[in-house]
Amino acid sequence: MISMDQYKGCFLGLAIGDAFGAPYEGGPLERLLWKAIGKTKDGKLRYTDDTQMAIDLAKSFLYNSTINQDHLAHTFAESYQWSRGYGPSTSQLLKLIKRGVHWKEINKKKFKTGSFGNGAAMRAPILAMCFPSNTHELLNSVIRSAEITHAHPLGIEGAKLIALATQIAFQKFSNEAILEYLFRQCDSKDYKSKITFCAEALKQSDIKLRKIISNLGNGIAAPQSCVTAIYFSLKFRNQEFDSMLDQVIKLGGDTDTISSMAGAIWGAFNGSLSIKNKAKAVERSNEIIKFAEKLFIKQEGQPGF
Ligand code: F2R
Ligand code: MG
Ligand code: MG
Predict the structure, then answer these.
(1) What is the CATH number for 140?
(2) Bridge partners (DSSP) listed for residue 282
(3) Which ligand 1 atom is at minimum distance from the Cα of 254?
(4) How many whole angstroms from 82 Cα to the centroid of ligand 1?
(5) Residue 301: its pLDDT value, please?
(6) Average pLDDT over residues 211-235
(7) Cβ–ligand 1 contact at 119 (below 6 Å)
(8) Could you say which of 77, 96, 209, 278 would form a disulfide bridge with 101 (CB–CB 3.0 to 4.6 Å)?
């Protein structure tokens, strides 16, 4: 039985990973900028595009009881603020949607095959909360959510892996069973070989971070970050959230997104009890808890769905 506390843990883990990872994302310029704009007036840590798009997805699902692509595209666009640090192609796309252009006309504008950034994957844990047991509906919804901003097959595949990893983390299967399941569900050679590496790396307690970077990646592209996040969530599932966060921050690169995706999966395993206090440092964390509660009540199979 999945508990409401696991939903709270999942959403809070996503937001905490994002807000605490954000000051370390990217190079010196990005870090300097975040130093200037990374706190609210009342001293809370601001979250970035990762959490904003997750909130938008939750809001849109709660309103429609399904993934309504046009509504979701407008919800993303209405929330857009440059200061949340969106990826370049997503920024451009959301600004155009806000001006009235339909998402289908522009989701393959900057890149002919669509974006393979990790922007669709970073919001995918929410879909596992919408569809915790219907995998067919989950996968269908991953595609519908992703293709608005990330039409590239590798962008969608990364979102699929993060959604499935979150869904199965709610069930608390063993790491071996989770990775076997993800491998079977995976359509891409590149991701498959990363999942195989992940299984091997989890057997080595003293593996160096540079080996994780060179084999799994720490970048902004989905193939360079999704399996990395899954690796950290599985490695630290029985340890404190902060131990995982420290390692992801040391990894460098796309620290907010990797710790956000890993944080969501960690929270799906462990619930919110041990991270509730940490969440108080993050802006709007009470509202995030409320979204998690509403998603739990609305999840498929429950009355009112
Ligand atoms: N934007 C940021 N952080 C600032 C930059 C960090 C640093 N310079 C770094 O590179 O590590 N963070 C937020 O953006 C990420 C999510 O991005 P999203 O929404 O996927 O953006 P986008 O623009 O669609 O894709 C990101 C970049 O990936 C490359 N790319 C994507 N598809 C491509 C394709 N088909 N061909 C070639 N390149 C492609 C491009 O460089 C895109 O700009 C998260 O990290 C979030 O925190
Ligand atoms: Mg971000
Ligand atoms: Mg990021």
Answers:
(1) 1.10.4080.10
(2) 45
(3) 11
(4) 14
(5) 58
(6) 98
(7) yes
(8) 96
